[in-house]
Write a structure and sequence with these properties.
Blueprint lengths: L3 E2 L5 H4 L2 E2 L3 E6 L5 H14 L4 E5 L4 H10 L4 H6 L3 E5 L2 H4 L7 E2 L5 H11 L8 E4 L3 H4 L3 H18 L2 E7 L5 H10 L2 E10 L2 E11 L9 E5 L5 E5 L3
Parallel strand pairs: 3-8, 3-9, 4-5, 4-7, 5-6, 7-8
Antiparallel strand pairs: 1-2, 9-10, 10-11, 11-12
Length: about 230
């Protein structure tokens, strides 16, 4: 029988998620997408899971602060080899990084080498999050699609659960379609106007081989940016 795991927040949409699945997260650039990912990661660690988190769209210090606000000291999980924060942002911005694990240059060749070396070190059921691949894929979508097929194959063979983000509206429509075909599930996060205000919404579009609750939910953040989901009333 295939092993599954509950992934916080996402399992409200997809149910328990089988090992080896890849979830494509399509997000509006102005939505609170990275805050949602931090919630998922922090709760997953607290539940005893292993985490590899690639920071690609903000300084790594921001995610560490958000972990602290959520009551999860990621440094403690790193010290027990339960978590790694990998900085792929600083190299893009040409700034120095204090992270132990970081990329020297954000390119597909380097990422392929890093994945090949690091994947065997992670047990099945590990949550592998890459905030966004859009900066890397922009204007080289065909090459990136080939890279993605290899990446998905590596992590799927390892039995990990991968969340990979792409920003809406930055790439050709056919690229999004190809990425959906590569992935096992599609998640959407949007910033929409509802009842005279702008709100963050989340929706599970599909999960291959199992039922998906595709109803739209509002993402509510409290003062510490703790996220909860609430069915959106029409």
């Amino acid at each position: 029988m295939q092993k599954t795991v509950r992934v916080p927040l996402l399992s409200e949409l997809f149910g328990e998620i089988p090992f080896g699945r890849t979830i494509l997260a399509l997000y509006d650039p102005d939505a609170q997408y990275t805050a949602l990912l931090t919630n998922i990661a922090a709760d997953f660690l607290r539940a005893g899971g292993d985490l590899l988190y690639t920071v690609s769209s903000r300084p790594s210090g921001e995610i560490r602060q958000q972990f602290d606000m959520l009551g999860a000291n990621v440094s403690e999980y790193e010290s027990s080899d339960k978590a790694v924060v990998f900085d792929a942002y600083s190299a893009q911005m040409g700034i120095s990084s204090a992270e132990k694990y970081q990329s020297e240059a954000m390119n597909l060749n380097e990422l392929s080498i890093i994945m090949g070396k690091s994947a065997p070190q992670w047990p099945a059921g590990t949550l592998v999050i890459t905030e966004s691949f859009s900066n890397l894929a922009f204007n080289q979508e065909n090459v990136f699609a080939k890279f993605s097929r290899k990446a998905v194959g590596i992590w799927r063979n390892q039995g990990t659960i991968m969340i990979a983000g792409l920003a809406n509206g930055l790439h050709p429509p056919e690229f999004y379609q190809e990425m959906k075909l590569i992935s096992d599930a599609v998640l959407e996060m949007k910033l929409v106007e509802h009842g005279g205000e702008f709100i963050n919404t989340i929706r599970g579009r599909s999960m291959k081989g199992q039922n998906t609750d595709s109803r739209v939910r509002k993402v509510i953040f409290d003062k510490n940016m703790k996220a909860t989901l609430q069915l959106l009333k029409s």
